[in-house]
Amino acid sequence: MIDNDGPVLASRALIALILGATDDDAQVIANKDTAGLYYYNQLAANNVSATQASAHAAFSVVTSDPATVLASEAATNAFVQSALHTSIVSATVATVGILDSAQSFQLAAYTIIGITRTRRSPA
């Protein structure tokens, strides 16, 4: 229980809020927990860093209505896809000219999201 006797640790206040939540409040907490786990798992699975704006977009829509969890997941998915698209566009492509005894060709090596590809083409 939290009273007015003095400062309370944030962790203790959070536990008191969760334990005291009833009806819609309890559902909001459950929905935010679900949305938070989805957000974390999607970012971790795609090696994407969280931002304050993406977290706000994902969690601010969550209420006691279960449909808002789907809206949160959509916001998370949009952020992850945007971050992945940016990574692909900014990938570095290095082209090296190599002279073979029989022919000249170019070897292009590039890395996109941790996967290295090599392509050989005539010079």
Question: What does the model show?
Answer:
The chain is an alpha+beta fold. It has 2 domains: 10-89, no CATH class; 93-122, no CATH class. The chain is built from 4 helices and 3 strands. It has helices at residues 10-20, 23-45, 52-59, 67-89; strands at 93-99, 104-112, 115-122. A 3-stranded antiparallel sheet has the order 1-2-3, with no helix packed on it. A hairpin with a 4-residue loop joins strand 1 (93-99) and strand 2 (104-112). Helix 2 packs parallel to helix 4 (67-89) and helix 3 (52-59) packs antiparallel against helix 4. The longest helix is centred in the N-terminal third of the chain and has 23 residues, at 23-45. The protein is globular.
Helix content percent band:
40-55%
Q: Can you summarize the main beta sheet?
A: 3 strands, antiparallel
Total strands: the figure is 3
Mean pLDDT value: 75
Number of domains: 2
The number of helices is: 4
Q: How much β-strand is present in the residues?
A: 15-25%
Shape, principal axes of CA atoms: globular
Radius of gyration: 24 Å
Which residues sit in consecutive blocks of at least 5 with pLDDT less than 50? 88-118
Strand order of the largest sheet: 1-2-3
Order of helices and strands: HHHHEEE
What structural category do the secondary elements indicate? alpha+beta
Give the termini separation. Answer: 75 Å
Which SSEs are present, and which pair or pack?
Blueprint lengths: L9 H11 L2 H23 L6 H8 L7 H23 L3 E7 L4 E9 L2 E8 L1
Antiparallel strand pairs: 1-2, 2-3
Helix pairs in contact: 2-4, 3-4
In short:
The chain is α+β, with helices and mostly antiparallel strands. The protein has 2 domains: 10-89, no CATH class; 93-122, no CATH class. The protein is built from 4 helices and 3 strands; from the N terminus they run ααααβββ.
